Amino acid sequence: GEEVAQTPKHLVRGEGQKAKLYCAPIKGHSYVFWYQQVLKNEFKFLISFQNENVFDETGMPKERFSAKCLPNSPCSLEIQATKLEDSAVYFCASSQGYNEQFFGPGTRLTVL
Amino acid sequence: AQSVTQLDSHVSVSEGTPVLLRCNYSSSYSPSLFWYVQHPNKGLQLLLKYTSAATLVKGINGFEAEFKKSETSFHLTKPSAHMSDAAEYFCVVSERAGGFKTIFGAGTRLFVKA
Fold this sequence. Notes:
The complex is a heterodimer of chains A (112) and B (114).
Chain A (H helix, E strand, L loop, with lengths): L4 E3 L2 E4 L5 E6 L6 E7 L5 E8 L2 E4 L8 E4 L6 E5 L8 E8 L6 E2 L3 E5 L1
Chain B lengths: L2 E4 L3 E5 L4 E3 L1 E4 L5 E7 L5 E7 L5 E3 L5 E5 L4 E6 L8 E9 L5 E4 L3 E6 L1
Parallel strand pairs in B: 2-12
Antiparallel strand pairs in B: 1-4, 3-9, 5-6, 5-10, 7-8, 8-9, 10-11, 10-12
């Protein structure tokens, strides 16, 4: 597609439940990025992929967060055992090489 | 080390007056620099980018920015603010350093008064 698509738009989970977010990058883009935007509007980098390979995962809280980008499937970001502080908007972006990133509309995760 | 500092958390201007949103960066390599805009409850939209070509970059909606290496700055300007410009603006730096590092500034909220 011509736009980055993210689903669902909103996700509500009880503390301790699992949350799974999806992202379909723009066709032909080889890089995918995940960011977390919390209430102060600060963007925190989580992880990036080059095709299906993890490119940079220095931002991932690895004990509960995992992500995949498999061929012919949307990329996914999964949070096991969600915590209150995971409440945020999660943005996916894609890019063609070392160029500007195109952002999806985000998934708002609310952990109760 | 790579970092981005947006010098103002809030800027307020009157409609029709100039806009200046300030951004300073540090980078060990030749960076690419971007300005994105985020309207409430929306995703990020690219306004403009600098990738080592012309230092004065023109973007969408009348915005432009000048890359000044000596001052390590990439300030965003617009000659005349419009009510629809009210939004959050992010300065972003990317560099090819041990991969592909991208750092966001903290954002500047622009208010436009009628």
